[in-house]
Amino acid sequence: MIDWFEFVTRIKPGLELSIGLVIAVAVTVHVLLTKKDTASATAWIGLAWLAPFFGGATYFVLGINRVRRRAIRLRAPSAARTRRHRKGGDAADADHRLAPLQLGISRITGRPIETGNRIDILNNGDGAYPAMLEAIARAEHSIGLSSYIFRADKIGHRFIAALAEAQKRGVTVRVIVDGIGSGWLLSPAYRALRQAGLPAGRFMHSALPWRMSFLNLRSHKKILVVDGRIGFTGGVNVADQNLLANNPPEPIQDTHFRIEGPIVAQLTYAFIRDWAFVAQEELEGEAWYPELRAHGHSIARVVTAGPDEDLEKIEQTILQAIACSRTSIQVMTPYFLPDQRVITALGLAAQRGVAVDIVIPSKNVHRTMDWATQANVGPLLEAGVRIWRCPPPFRHSKLMVIEGEWSLIGSSNWDMRSFRLNFELSIESYDKALAASLGQIVAENHSLPLTLEELNARPFPIRMRDAAARLLLPYL
């Protein structure tokens, strides 16, 4: 007679070993075929072999990029329409000394450069919100709005009321809020949008355990496109704290932009493909893609990035700009935690005589970011990069200017989350007047310098704390 208990007891260790071996091999094969970063690949493979069941489950939830195929399948049909509707030139002045930069970014993005644009600077919510609400009030055909943070506060309800009024007069309205930035478990703004009868979607939102990996992938974009003719983008979310005139308890300084001209078609397409991803609805026609004419002299192009077909494209754009700089690089960012590639590129630029100035907040709203930054910038200071801390209120602007001629504006911070995990949108512009104005904003915030002596004087426990915080760099 077979002793089944003894049989199972004897076979169980061998069965567990076999299953663990299969899991470890499967994870290894998938990592080798899909992961570009060697440090990340090595870590995942090591975890899978050391703890096959835990490592395999963790990799299945957090390590597999499930966005890429969905993004391509849902977004690809709009690409041909974007090419069909775009207006403007295919190249700026070929003799311009930044022509290599223009060519490099063209190959990174696959998008044409557009001439004849106008880009106006809007300071804080005080400047941005009235212009945005006015555009919504005058809309005749379509409105697309996407915001990482959309709060159901006073200004949030003003936007909801304006959008609902536009829809009542026959305007097609679509709204995207991020599934984390605008609230995960509860999203009052999303609920208010739906209660107002507005078609709204939550980007990458899911409460299902097997989709928890998406919590780390966020749409950080700020886009408003009206009638396919007027666009807004930059760093301003929809929240009362951006209205400095009202003296909010936690004020945020920021920079936003109003855009007209052929580049608006690229901005519209960026919104439309995100809406297709969120709602599986393709938006098309003259309501979204009208004929566009020149409105100014800015030469511009949209650069998008995300953990799909646009992986690391904004970081690559920044690296191209650093490599093409010869005299000056000006950067303003609320979060400065780039990877070693960007650190090295900035350091090399400073060593070849480029004046590199980076402005960050003197006190971050996330203290861990301050700690990690202090552990990350030593090599830059050693190379001659100047790092400045601007005083409160917290400065949320994301600006880059090189040579006083080229600028990069939009939603992307200078950290690994924005470069690799978030869905971001920036605009590159070859416009001396715009670059001069943005450069002035950066220069006016040169306040307290961060010095190498200050970093080296940190007590040992503080240095250990900062170094530990730096290990969280990909997730901060």
UniProtKB/TrEMBL annotation:
Keywords tagged on the record: Cell membrane, Lipid biosynthesis, Lipid metabolism, Membrane, Phospholipid biosynthesis, Phospholipid metabolism, Repeat, Secreted, Transferase, Transmembrane, Transmembrane helix
Topology relative to the membrane: Multi-pass membrane protein
Principal location listed in the UniProt entry: membrane
Keyword check for Cell membrane: yes
InterPro entries in the cross-refs: Cardiolipin_synthase, CLS_N, PLD-like_dom, PLipase_D/transphosphatidylase
Enzymatic class: transferase
Keyword Nucleus: no
Gene Ontology terms for molecular function: cardiolipin synthase activity
SMART domains for the chain: PLDc
GO terms under cellular component: extracellular region; plasma membrane
Matches recorded under Pfam families: PLDc_2, PLDc_N
Family annotation (PROSITE patterns): PLD
Stored SUPFAM superfamilies: Phospholipase D/nuclease
This enzyme's EC code(s): 2.7.8.-
Chain ranges of the PLD phosphodiesterase domain: 215-242, 396-418
Localization per record: Cell membrane; Secreted
Ranges that cross the membrane: 14-33, 45-65
Domain of life: Bacteria
Gene Ontology terms describing biological process: cardiolipin biosynthetic process
Known function: Could be a virulence factor.
Protein name: Cardiolipin synthase
Naturally occurring in which organism (per UniProt): Acidisoma silvae
